[in-house]
Amino acid sequence: MAQIFAYIVHKGGVIDDTAAELAVAAKKIDASSAVTAIVTGSGADLDTVCQEAAKLYPEVWKFDNQALAYPNAEVIRKLLVDVLPKDAVFLVPHDTFGMDLGPGLSIKLDVPYVPDVIEIEAADGSTFKMVRQEFSGMAHTHVACDLGSGGVITPRPGVFQPEEGAAEAGGKVTDKSGEAGDLSARRRFLEVVEAEVGDVDITKADVLVSIGRGIEDEENIELAEELAEAMGAVVSCSRPIVDAKWMEKSRQVGTSGQTVKPKVYMAMGISGSFQHLGGIKGSPFMVAVNKNPKAPIFQVADVGIVEDILEFMPEMTEKIEELQ
Amino acid sequence: MEILVCVKRVPDTAENEIEVKSDGTDIERDDLVYSVNEWDNYAVEEAIQIRDNVGGSVTVVTVGDDESEEVLRREMAMGADNGVLLSDSAFEGSDGRGVAAILKAQADAGNYDLILCGAQADDGAGQVGGMLAAMLDWPYASLVNHIEIVDDKKIKVGREIEGGNQELNEIELPCVLSIQTGINEPRYVGIRGIRKVASVEIPVKGASDLGLDPATVGEAGAKVKRLDYFVPELGEGAEILEGSMEEKIEKLIELLKAKGGLK
Ligand SMILES: Cc1cc2nc3c(=O)[nH]c(=O)nc-3n(C[C@H](O)[C@H](O)[C@H](O)COP(=O)(O)OP(=O)(O)OC[C@H]3O[C@@H](n4cnc5c(N)ncnc54)[C@H](O)[C@@H]3O)c2cc1C
Ligand SMILES: Cc1cc2nc3c(=O)[nH]c(=O)nc-3n(C[C@H](O)[C@H](O)[C@H](O)COP(=O)(O)OP(=O)(O)OC[C@H]3O[C@@H](n4cnc5c(N)ncnc54)[C@H](O)[C@@H]3O)c2cc1C
Asked: How distant is the Cα of A173 from the closest Cα of chain B, in angstroms?
């Protein structure tokens, strides 16, 4: 079986949760393989990251170079094409970095690409069956691919959960910086602009009434505001509501928005995409109201109600007001 | 600036319940409402705005069947100048790489400065743009939520990264970008707009027109094969509240009181 590599995402000297998750995914491909972690970056933080990675992986390759200070996928792709063995199986999380790197890397390595994978099963020899979701999670598929001559796989963040209290790998860190070739690219990183802070901080709210595309029209947002007011809650939303400019970006829950930790989360007309759910932490009591009984949100919610939110919300508001 | 925008015809998940066929070979496609992939509308709008600012033309292209023509017309009604349909029985069963290879042939046949894709489509893969860029050996940026034309050699792009932060990059032309939703507000297309372009000729190109070896695309060229569609065995899932609307609300209020969601 081919050698497996995992790309370690890190920021400010701290490794991302996906570092441990990729180790779990790698085991599903080959339980006996000594998986190698790849750590790229620059400066003092990098050694801390390598030490952390060595707790999860038996081998850590460190690439320290000023050109790698910010993870520019175009630069890192060049590096990987130079240093990876011919038949490498390369894992990188399906996040904004992995989505930037994975497709092009698979072409340059001339290997199969399997994006956003949520399960990996051995099939026949070097052929694997992997599970993906399509149509915003409304259908699942098995895809087959031969990893015998390598592959690029992007496991979905948060899915391959490591076991608690697993033994440390006690890995060896090897400085491979000298093996990097030309690290120039036709895309140059300039700076990161931090998201704007809004008038309401949804991350501090105990109860969120969160609206999705099911709200249908900007005028209907009022119904959610009235319900939130009656409940003593704050209104948050899914991405399409922000894209439509109906609410501020600071109200968006999800991987490209805010991470919230409420006690109660009311998902109103939200389908339950993984990018949305990725912004909800701390296992709140989740209520989903959706007119489609098959909406994926019902798989993760604690309580589900199949109703039209445009009728449901005003009735609930009225009921609460009656009780007060 | 000569701009090529890649668009895909997809079932509209906001309009449809997606059901897996009982034999698992496909989803139920009868009665599905199709539309342009949400992300691609933003890409076309962005291309039109760039053209209106700096001049040039916008061509929309899709790999698909006869029915895919309708999405090209829709995007032309928005304001794209040309449409091209890439269609051939040899293209059937293509994986993302196959679709990218077909689009590359179209890119090679033109003289484009900029190619725009959507960040992802109905398969949730987000693969075609990055593959196309690598095949062309052009620079690439994904999840683009801001474009600023600097000159005819380079542009500045913002990428949306975790937490809603934005990563600014300078990228040389020609390049491929995949566009994230929210970058602009796609214009509305009315029936009248569609009617205007109803009789415009849309060229159809097959494998031989594009100089493509059929063995490299379609099922023959696929490195990744979709085996089936299935409905997973689910865990317990949500407790579904039954009864009349009033009863459901009463039950919910009790539950919320217990969980601290209501004072
Ligand atoms: C890189 C990347 C990052 C992303 N980041 C985020 C993020 O941070 N946050 C986020 O939310 N999304 C994010 N997305 C988008 C995400 O993939 C989904 O497209 C999005 O979450 C869908 O929002 P939704 O559930 O509101 O809409 P839809 O998926 O369209 O769902 C609408 C739901 O409402 C139901 N409905 C419709 N009308 C009614 C009604 N009257 N009453 C009751 N129910 C109704 C429908 O049955 C459906 O289930 C990201 C995508 C990408 C590619
Ligand atoms: C792992 C995997 C295995 C697959 N296996 C099979 C299979 O065995 N048989 C099969 O029939 N299909 C298969 N498919 C589906 C088929 O390959 C898709 O049509 C193809 O991957 C492109 O769609 P996408 O949704 O992945 O595009 P994405 O990469 O998610 O779309 C991003 C952007 O690429 C552009 N784009 C995508 N598709 C087109 C298009 N057709 N025309 C123009 N532009 C386009 C658009 O700009 C779009 O916004 C598979 C898909 C995946 C992910």
From this structure: 28
Mean pLDDT for all residues in chain B: 95
What pLDDT band is residue A119 in, cutting at 50, 70 and 90? Answer: very high
Domain membership of residue A188 (yes or no) is no
Strand arrangement of the beta sheet that strand B140-149 belongs to: A187-193, B166-172, B154-160, B140-149, B175-179, B114-118, B2-6, B57-63, B82-86, B204-205
Q: What domain count does chain A have?
A: 2
From the list A97, A100, A315, the residue facing B245 with the nearest CB is A315
The whole-angstrom separation of Cα A72 and Cα A101 is 9
Say if the Cβ atoms of A315 and B256 lie within 8 Å: no
Of B33, B39, B75, B38, whose CA–CA distance to B58 is shortest? Answer: B75
Kindly state whether residues A155 and A210 are assigned to the same domain: no
Check whether residue A250 and residue A112 sit in a common domain.
no
What pLDDT is attached to residue B15?
A: 74
Reading the block at residue B251, the tokens are 């039950």
Is residue A189 one of the residues assigned to a domain? no
A287, A319: one domain? yes
Q: What CATH number does residue A263 fall under?
A: 3.40.50.1220
Which pLDDT score is estimated for A1?
A: 65
Domain boundary, last residue among A179, A212, A238: A179
| pLDDT score, position A44 | 87
pLDDT in tens, B46-92: 999 999 999 999 999 999 999 999 999 999 999 999 999 999 999 99
Q: Assign residue A139 the CATH number of its domain.
A: 3.40.50.620
Closest residue in B to A253 (Cα) is B163
In a shared domain, residues A209 and A253: yes
Retrieve residue A209's tokens.
Answer: 């009434």
Class of residue B239 by CB neighbours under 10 A (exposed 0-12, middle 13-18, buried 19+): middle
> Rounded mean pLDDT of B99-127?
97
pTM: 0.96
Cβ atoms of B213 and B206 closer than 8 Å = no
What residue numbers bound the domain in which A249 lies? 202-323
> Is the Cβ–Cβ distance between B11 and B34 less than 8 Å?
yes
Out of 3.30.40.10, 3.40.50.620, 3.30.70.100, 3.30.43.10, which CATH number does the structure's domain B2-221 have?
3.40.50.620
Instruction: Say how many Å lie between the CA of residue A13 and the centre of ligand 2.
Output: 36
The closest CB to that of B165, out of A143, A192, A316, belongs to A192
CB contact under 8 A, A194 and B165: yes
Say if A193 falls within a structural domain.
no
Q: Which value does ipTM take for this structure?
A: 0.95
Domain map (residue ranges) of chain B: 2-221, 236-263
**What is the whole-number distance in angstroms between the Cα of residue A117 and the centre of ligand 2?**
15
B3 - beta bridge partners?
B58, B114
Return the ∠ at Cα A219 (arms to A217 and A220), rounded to 5°. Answer: 70
